[in-house]
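Lecture 7 notes. Example A: sequence first, then its structure tokens.
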Amino acid sequence: MTHPVPPARRPELPPVHGAVICVAAPCLAISPEHGQLTGRGLDGIYRSGLRLLSRCLLRVAGRDPVAVQGRSLGADRAGFTATVRTGAEAGPDPDIGVERVRHADGTERITLRNFTARRHRLPVEIALGTDLADLAAVAAGRAGPELPAGVHTSGLCWSTEGGAQAVTTAEPPPDDALASAGLLRWELDLPPGEARTIELRTARDRAGRVPGGPAAGPLAEARAEGDDPRAEHWFRTSVADLRALLLRDPSGPVDAFLAAGAPWRLGMAPAESLWAARMALPLGTGLAAATLRVLARTQSAGPGPEAGMIPGPLRGAGPQLPPGCTGTEATLAFPVVLAEARRWGLPEAELAELLPAAERCLGWLRARLGEDGFLADPAGGPRRCETQAHAHRAALLGADLLASCGSPGAEEWRDRAAALRERFRAEFWIDADGPSGGRPAAALHPDGRPLPRLTAAAAHLLDTGLLGGGRLAPGLLDPVRTEQLARLLGAPPMDSGWGLRSMAAREPGHNPFGHRSGAVRPQDTAVAVAGLAAAGFEREAAGLLRGLLDAAEHFGYRLPEMYAAEQRTAGSAPLPHPAACRPASVAAAAGVHVLAAVVGLRPDAPAGTVTLAPFAGAPLGALRLSGLRVAGEPFAVRVSRTGLGMVEEAAGTLQLAT
């Protein structure tokens, strides 16, 4: 008798929430808080997923420096402070200070400073090593032993039979290099009060070239300032993280897109790259246009059911639903991002180039809509709530795009959107007659049975999209149901106090660490904040906004892609998710999106107008955003403590709409 073989267990991802991570995609450095790269765990300097250096241990005067502090100095660099007691001075005070600044691109500067009034001659050793392993192998614990080192000019080098190689060079050159132990040695002379610096450069080739930083930035140098200084820190960190996650497309190097996040997903994720580009539109249309071009090159062509689809992998949807197709989400987002980028000032030439791909996305949607008017997942299974919201938005903004460009089909898509609204309100809203007032179903099973779970996917029902004249597209819900949904999203089962839970706390299967069953995902909260404010429910929007900002402060203004949140109480804090990417593109873009929603910026560059609809209650006090881009020109807007919005800088072709 044979027994079925159980499926192999998925390896656990090593926790990184306590690591200091710096990114300049495709470069990445992961360090423990003490700064010494030990060769254990994920420690190391990576480029394009290859670990170039796993061990970098510093010893001064035969001693390990005593770590004092490790922290991020920016998206692409980290600083580590330590001290050394040489024993030459009596008492407990350290006499040598050690400052290490490590850059994602593989550069590290180690500065030793003499705190005393006497001269020191210090032996300094740096032990280096690497396995040249892929990040995936490192994460799975299959990295293998360190490779033997060879001496290379002013440093060490490593290589594999497969041709991978890494070189670490030092300036000044070491006095001695011992390849068998991976050691570089110096004898440094430190007069009283003076400092000496050793610079290490780790690269992939024997020329020792340090790769250039991130892709050329299509994002504006914008900034925030106001009564709440946290808004300035959050906005600045969000923009810096977005810049750090930019990657060039190998098939079109002039185009950059946002990687999903570090360390696990430092590459293209079509749906998330589009969502992040859409949320970052206040920083200019360049990123959106480049991302759309990158994805248009991947679009399925020719006849068949996949024609017009942007391919994307399956993504887990929690214990209640089967995995969903991110390609569906990306295909529906494509015409939306293009239509909204046009409102923000996308040049006509780029619009004309991308319009055919958007029309193919709409053609795919037409072929996929079922007889009941709903969009089913291509992989089969239930009709998801958020998928209908994405399809409705694509239909409405696609119609607006076609009409604006003089292309046929606009009325067809408006009719399809109207039909979807009618069917959705009738079939997705459950318990309408109960004492609670009802809720949207998370999904409909193929036989029409609703899945009665309240999840953050419902926030997407409020995300309608930007039309001409500063108008918002009509939502899937009528005013009564919108009010009920606002009440649900603003109540404690969904509002954790740190942001919107991905599933209500009272639902069966709730898990505060579940990425789709309870954990907070900043993208969902940002969508809810903007949608609630646009619908006139500013109290609920302001509560979620404050919670998200408080969480950002706890995470050093670099929000992870998800985090656990029990109900907030005095003295509590959001809990890091051990497997979350940080930084993550959608989490970083969420900071830009919600602050733009606070000032209520709704441009219509083709019409030469801009509308302001700021939060009337000014939940953050006075707030000014400057360096934004509307119609390709710098734009600055201010909201007063009373909620009055005013434009301070704009293109000469723009007028404030009344």
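Example B, a different protein, same format:
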Amino acid sequence: MGRKREEGGLWCVGFLSLWILASSSPAYRNVNPEVQALVDIKEKLQDPHGVLGKWDGTFADPCTWTFVTCSSNGPVISLVSSSQGLSGTLSPSIANLTNLQTLLLQNNRISGKLPSELGELTKLQTLDLSHNLYSGEIPASIAELKSLHYLRLNNNSLSGTIPLSMASMTNLTFLDLSYNNLSGPVPKFLAKTVNIMGNPMICATGKEKGCNEKKPMTLYSDNQQGSQSSGRSKSQKIAVAIGSSLGCICLLFVIFGFLLWRRQRHNQQIFYEINEQYRQEVSLGNLRRFQFRELQVATRNFSSKNIIGKGGFGIVYKGHLQDGTIVAVKRLKDGNAVGGETQFQTEVEMISLAVHRNLLRLYGFCMTATERLLVYPYMSNGSVAFRLKAKPALTWGTRKHIAMGAARGLLYLHEQCDPKIIHRDVKAANILLDDYCEAVVGDFGLAKLLDHTDSHVTTAVRGTVGHIAPEYLSTGQSSEKTDVFGFGILLLELITGQRALEFGKTASQKGAMLDWIAG
């Protein structure tokens, strides 16, 4: 009896030891499904330049990985790895990124079939897999992406018919399937912009109907039909009178509808990127269009007491929307001026292209005949320039956190956007801080688009004195190095607690920060 108890005890100890060893091994740990999905994606791709090297499955949080953006709540919402020389195939595990809103893998050499699992990304709004080597048919599951606004599959080797179910994608505003080997019939797409040129079996000459169409926004359609008479008219005169009356009413409806259509067309918001190489329509479907009166009430008629900042192009006001949301409203000084219009267009374009937790996002805009306004989230801690002078002083840990956040935002603009974006005005006043002192790069009014194959863009010198790179001043050629110089000045300001143009205690020392550091 004692021997059996001893053997039973040894068996229990052994089982417990094996269980502890097994549970401590990586294979039995609880793995974040998003981490596992990203690791699977990495394994299926070939990465000759090692740009995915930081994607390590031993980490529980993928939000610090390159090309990955997470929401404030944690889930991955954006995967952007454009023009990185990637090849291989796209893993079906992409479906496990259930909160994904943006997927940009264009300008690589990824091949194989489009995984049907893409249709499981129900929150996806932007999908760009263009300029790759995808083959096979477009999966019918694509039509399940009911939230999708922007879809580009052009310049691949896709074949077969276009799924007819794609005609039911009601939120789709931009669709490009050009330069593939697709065949008909062509669904009646609801998107405003559709391009299927370069498919020989559909658009042999490019002149066929529907190959490249842009539909005007329709505000009014008269689908009403005159009710049929239940019986014959007793009198021909009465019939003529009724017909004439109905004709007049229909004519009035047509005139009224035409006037509404003309007015809407005049105010229709379609912008084009400044660089002609990327002259494509930017969809504003995700942005809210505010009424001027709504912003007037939110800012108490743009009261001077609500001013939280001033810049070269306008004044920023703190506002409270009716739903309680606190916002920052940027009102351009002169909405009709050429500079104001250009700055408004540029800022909307850049923020539409760039989505990252360390970049200022745009809630919406307001555009009238005389006003141009942009609405942003309110940054409770103001700008870095403000916090450097405020009390209490920023701790070293906070300063380091600010520097890292600003660096991540600029890295995204320079390396992960396609085309990449040169900010051209990196300074402490344009680095904003949210409730948790997370750095957010803002004010894209002077930004420029730049192809990854180009080394610089030559423009008139713009920026803030003390933050402009010397070579930009002398040559007018700006590149990502221009932003790096401005970021260097920002680091010096964070370290010294001084501002570049207010350095030192005497007037002779002002603007001498670089000379002082070098000395």
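Note on Example B: The longest helix spans residues 236-267. The chain has three domains: 28-214, 288-377, 384-518.
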